[in-house]
Specification:
Layout lengths: L1 H20 L2 E9 L6 H14 L5 E5 L8 H6 L2 H9 L4 E2 L10 H10 L3 E3 L3 E3 L6 E2 L1 E6 L2 E8 L16 E3 L2 H14 L4 E6 L13 H7 L5 E3 L6 E6 L5 E5 L5 E10 L5 E9 L7 H6 L1 H11 L2 E5 L14 H14 L3 E4 L11 E4 H7 L5 E7 L1 H18 L4 E3 L3 E3 L9 E3 L3 E3 L6 E6 H4 L7 H7 L7 E6 H12 L10 E3 L3
Parallel strand pairs: 1-2, 2-3, 3-4, 4-6, 8-10, 10-11, 11-13, 17-24, 21-26
Antiparallel strand pairs: 1-14, 5-9, 7-8, 12-13, 14-15, 16-18, 17-20, 19-24, 19-25, 22-23
Length: 496
């Protein structure tokens, strides 16, 4: 009986000692992603970020697609965004797929300018890249947090031509197989995976971040991006917590991680802070005033004039004055007789009158270059059909120019293709130079597998002009001003 009392007393003492020794430590992880050069929104988030960073236990991370999407970024070559990352004291920058639009050299240039650590564990560059790391441990409030960075794992579905050979990209899981043992050896208190990919996005390998969470329970927190979704926080897999801040600097993600220093258990709470009602940070606004003014002055430059409005396709239209302009410019720059291209500016239109550099940047907001293929009539027909098969699902349609085609509602050719001024084209031995954007030749994010396969065939004589579509449009407007382009009916749906 006495021994039992001693045992109970000893157990109680141990429990009291545990309670006295146990200590829960907190750190805060702030995330932005998919800002796409929305500086007005970012300057508002800056006020929230500075407020949060008054505490000493904060890790600030951006998960990519930071720059592209704003005419100012195009003119400024991303220097303003780099300055904001530095002035706000970001700890980590993970490049997104659109950072690769500007080329590997530009990513390496930016990573040397940005004070934050550039983390990309799943990319290796052909050139030396000392400023790019796979992972790093950040110690805040006595907590050692390992952050692993990953860019979009399916870059090869959006990058084509010579730039494609400047780097190699691996899947998230493939990179983690190498990195996780290394990270675990460093004995961190928690592991964060900061990745430019969405929770449900999968590639040809079927890999998703859901599956990654189950495969690697060592990871405590996954910060997503790319899909533009706002996810305040959700448990995925046996342990990891997933969250994502959204897009265009609308929200700031705040994750509080609590670490039990005795058991090692990590728990999370997270929410999205709305930046729409915040005031732009005065210090940053004043520091960047000259940069913005110089960019806006450049964008106001008049390149030419148009006598008619440049309107994008409306609804299910297959031809428009806007696509006529873009395709005419691509054809002239590449020497192609046929062009397949979209309306990258979305609903943006230009009234009759002056055309500024800002207009051109909005007509073509992406760093897309021109590539050409030598195609047979059956291959052109198959590419047309593929557009109709994917049109409803992806809302990314390549409009035809330079050759007349009549199809049914599913994109099947109803009669031979017609070359204006020459007649029918059905001879398979006659191959015609056809121009596309580099993004589409890479498969447009796996949307166009037939086009991607055709673009990799030596029979198609693929050629990378290394000319940006935007530059081609600018030269065309300057050369042919005042524009008098009219909408022509290249592609027509018939019920016959």
């Amino acid at each position: 009986m006495i021994e039992m009392k001693k045992s109970l007393l000893f157990t109680a003492l141990l429990f009291i000692m545990y309670l006295l020794c146990a200590k829960e430590r907190n750190i805060v992880i702030l995330q932005t992603c998919d800002i796409h050069g929305n500086y007005s929104g970012w300057l508002k988030l800056a006020s929230l970020i500075k407020e949060e960073k008054k505490q000493e236990n904060v890790i600030l991370i951006d998960c990519g697609d930071t720059f592209q999407g704003n005419p100012v970024s195009i003119i400024d070559k991303d220097n303003i965004a780099a300055k904001i990352l530095n002035m706000l004291g970001y700890d980590v920058w993970v490049p997104g797929n659109h950072e690769f639009d500007f080329g590997s050299d530009n990513i390496l240039r930016l990573s040397s300018l940005i004070k934050a650590d550039t983390l990309m564990a799943n990319v290796s560059f052909k050139k030396s890249a000392p400023s790019v790391k796979s992972w790093k441990i950040y110690e805040k409030n006595g907590i050692r947090a390992a952050v692993i960075g990953m860019t979009f794992p399916y870059l090869k579905n959006s990058i084509w031509g010579r730039e494609r050979g400047t780097f190699e990209v691996k899947s998230v899981d493939h990179a983690l197989e190498r990195i996780i043992p290394e990270v675990m050896d460093a004995k961190p208190d928690m592991i964060i995976l900061a990745v430019h990919n969405g929770l449900d996005i999968s590639g040809p390998d079927g890999e998703t971040l859901w599956k990654t969470a189950w495969k690697y329970p060592q990871i405590n927190l996954i910060l997503g991006s790319h899909s533009h979704r706002e996810i305040s926080g959700v448990a995925v897999g046996p342990g990891p917590w997933f969250a994502q801040s959204g897009s265009r600097a609308g929200k700031l993600l705040k994750v509080t991680a609590s670490v039990d220093t005795l058991t090692g258990k990590v728990s999370f709470s997270s929410f999205l802070r709305d930046g729409s009602e915040a005031s732009p940070d005065k210090e940053l606004s004043e520091a960047l005033k000259t940069d913005f003014e110089e960019s806006e002055n450049s964008l106001a430059q008049i390149i030419g004039k148009t006598s008619i409005a440049m309107l994008p396709p409306s609804g299910k239209e297959l031809n428009s004055t806007m696509t006529e302009l873009i395709a005419s410019a691509i054809a002239e720059a590449s020497g192609a007789q046929i062009v397949f291209y979209g309306a990258p500016g979305g609903e943006f239109s230009v009234n009759a009158g002056p055309l500024t550099l800002n207009d051109i940047c909005r007509i073509q907001p992406y760093e897309d270059s021109i590539g050409t293929l030598e195609l047979s009539p059956s291959e052109v027909s198959a590419i047309i059909k593929e557009q109709f098969e994917k049109r409803t699902k992806f809302k990314h349609f390549l409009y035809l120019w330079g050759i007349c085609a009549q199809v049914d509602s599913k994109g099947n050719l109803l009669r031979p293709l017609i070359i204006p001024g020459k007649g029918e084209w059905s001879d398979e031995s006659i191959r015609i130079k056809t121009a596309f954007g580099s993004y589409d030749l890479a498969g447009a994010g796996n949307k166009f597998p037939f086009l991607k396969k055709t673009a990799s065939s030596t029979l198609s004589a693929p050629f990378d002009t290394q000319t940006l579509v935007r530059d081609a449009i600018r030269r065309y407007i300057s050369k042919h001003s005042t524009l008098t382009l009219n909408k022509r009916e290249w592609l027509k749906i018939s019920n016959e």
